[in-house]
Amino acid sequence: MKILADLLTISLVFVFQHSSATKLPYNANILIVLSSLSSWFIAARFVGLYKDFRSIPFSVEFTEFIKAITLYSLLSSFIVFIIFKGVPFSRADLFFHCVALLILLPLQKLAIRVIMKKIRSNAQLNRKVLIVGAGEPGMDFYQHYVKDNHYGFTLAGFIDDEQNPSVNGHYLGKTADIDKVIAKYDLDDIIVTMPMRDESQLAKIVSVGEKEGKRIRIIPHYERFGGSGKVHVGTLGSLPIITLRSLPLDLSDNKLYKRVFDIVFSALIITLVLSWLIPIVALIIKLTSKGPVFFKQERWGLNNKPIICYKFRSMRVDSKDLDENGKYQQATKDDPRVTGIGKFIRKTNIDELPQFINVLLGSMSVVGPRPHPVPLNMLSKDIIDNYMLRHWVKPGITGWAQVNGYRGETEQSHLMKKRVEFDVWYIENWTFWLDLQIIVQTLVNMVKGEKNAY
Predict the structure, then answer these.
(1) Total-model pTM
(2) Any bridge partners for residue 396, and if so which?
(3) Do 97 and 140 reside in the same domain of the chain?
(4) Is the CB of residue 427 less than 8 Å from the CB of residue 393?
C-alpha cells in the first residue's frame, strides 16, 4: 500500500508539472515518469523506507524518508542530465519536482498513519486475542503488539499455569482450562507465547482452538540456542523452514548493493591511488630489504573457502609464521621480523591497500570481518564462541571490530572474543550506511594514528 501511494504521488506531481509549466513530448514524458518511478522504488527500498513503522515514531520514518529523497534526487539528476540529456527537462523542473515530493510525501505518509489508526480504533474490526503465557514473552507481545493498538489487536485476556500480577485483572485461568475460557470469553486469535515443555499441552490448545474456529499463532522460543532473535520463517518449496539467524546480506538486493559499491570503490582506489603508489612503495621495499614486493597468504573467505590475500611485504623474507613449538606468531609491538619501511606502512595501513585487488576480484569486500591466517583460525574456532560465523560474509579490508579498537594482536583470548562479538554484530546488523560509517571512521583513525597498528 505504501509503495503504491508513493508511486501515485510521484505520478501526480508529474501530471501537475506537465499541465502547468513543463510541456514535454509525450514519449519524453513517459520515459521520465517511468525512470523516476523506478528510481524512487530503488532508493526507497535501498534505505528501508518500506519496513514496518506502525509502532515506531514518525520521526524515525521521516529520517529514512530524507535518506530516500536525497538518493532519489541524485539518481534522477544522473538520469535526466546524463542519460537522457537530450530531453528538455530543466534543472528548475527537477528542483520543483523534488521540493514538491519533499512536502507531499511526508504529508501523505502522515495521512496514511492517521487513517490506519482510525481504522484500527474501530473495535468491530479488531481481533480479540487470548495470550497463552503471562511470563516475559507474553507481556512483551502485549506491550508491543496489543496495548497501543498498532496491529489491530485487543486483549481478551491471559491464561497461564502461574498467575502474574502484572496482567492487571486479565488473568482468565490455567492452560488446562482453555476449553472453558474459549466457551466463556469472546475472542478471535490464540497467541501461544509460553514454551510448551509437554507437546500434548500444545496439541490440546491447537485442537480445542481450531475446533471452535479460532486462529492459532505460535511464537517460538529460540533463545536457548544463543541466537540473536533475528529469526526468519519462510518456505523451501512447500516445506516450512526456520532460519535462526537471518542476515541482511542474505537478501539478493543487499548483496547487489554491497557488490556494486565494492566494485566502484575499489576501482577508484586502484585507479587514483594504487596506480602511482604501488611503484613508489615497491621501489622502497626493494631498496631496503631482500624479497618480493607483495606478501601473499592463504586465509579463509566466504563460507570458509580459502582465498589468497595480498599485502605489501612488511617483514623480512626469512620470517617464520610458527615458532619452535609450532604456535602461530602474531605481529607484536616492536616485532623484530618487521622491516624499517614495514613499520611505517603497517602503522599507516598502507600494507593493506593491495587488498583492493581482492575486493575487485570478488574474494573480499571493502568492509567486513578481517580475514585471519589459517593457523589462527584453527586455533580460535574451537575455543571462541561463534567464531566461524565471521565467515558467513566476505572478509573486509576494514571492519566494525577494527574501528572499535579491536585490531592487531589478539594473544589474550578476551581480545579475540570481543573482536568476534563486534564482527557478529556487524553481520547481523549490516546496512550500507553502516559500511560508510566504518569507512569514514577508518580514515579518521588512520589520520589520528592507532596504538594497535604495528
Answers:
(1) 0.70
(2) 365
(3) no
(4) yes
